[in-house]
Amino acid sequence: MKTLIFKDLRQNARGLLFFIGTAILFPTAIYMVTAPGADNRGYVGVIFGFVTFSAPTMFAMWFIGQEKLKGTLRFLKILPISGMGVIVAKSLTCICICLVTMNVSLIGIPILLRLAGFPISIPAPMLLFWLNLANIFFISLNVLGFTALNHKIASQISLYGMMSVGLGVLFAGKLLAPRGYSFSKLIGIIQGKPGLFYFLGVLIFILSAVVIRLAGKIFERAEWPDLEES
């Protein structure tokens, strides 16, 4: 499994380094240019767009979609490792890169900025927890999509699916607000019940693992021609 992880890292090294550098430096530049203060919402929002929204689709395309296009994914089935191991290795690679980049951006850079005299606040632990969990969940969905489907279809489902979820949350908030309901109240309820908070977190984590396992099963059962795209 380590060999597969190193292979993916080596093959995509330039793109990964560019992504990590951009995901760290661009939000920092935006914060410093736009009247830096204690409010970190814009800073966190940019990082969310880079790492949580776009990176899972991009990495699934790099590690799975491109291998289908090159016809190399099917050759991984002849290696002395199970198909499940191949998918788990690729999923772990995506997760590790995203989580390291996100936490360096959300914790490390704000600490450095504060040491340099900028008043930016460090995101709350609960926000960090949910952003990391969202990353894992979105990565699992994209790994499943690019394993089971043509990359052209999988990329559209990922992009438009996330846009639909975002718009759905926006419209739901507007519809529920006149009736006295809001997502802030929901978050407050969850915060007030630590048991529910951890239950939902564990549930999402287990669901992510189940989705990755399903992707592994699909890869194991896929016929040789289905693992190459023209």
Could you explain the architecture of this structure?
This protein has helices spanning 2-11, 13-33, 41-70, 83-115, 125-148, 151-176, 183-191, 194-221. It is mostly helical and 230 residues long. It has one domain. The two termini are 27 Å apart.
State the domain count: 1
End-to-end C-alpha gap: 27 Å
The gross shape turns out to be: globular
Which percent band covers the strand fraction? under 5%
How many H/I helices?
8
Low-pLDDT stretches: none
Helix content class: over 70%
Class from helix and strand fractions: mainly alpha
State the total count of DSSP E strands. Answer: 0
Oligomer: single chain
Rg from alpha-carbon coordinates? 19 Å
String of helices and strands:
HHHHHHHH
Mean pLDDT: 83
Report the sheet with the most strands, covering strand number, pairing sense and barrel closure: none
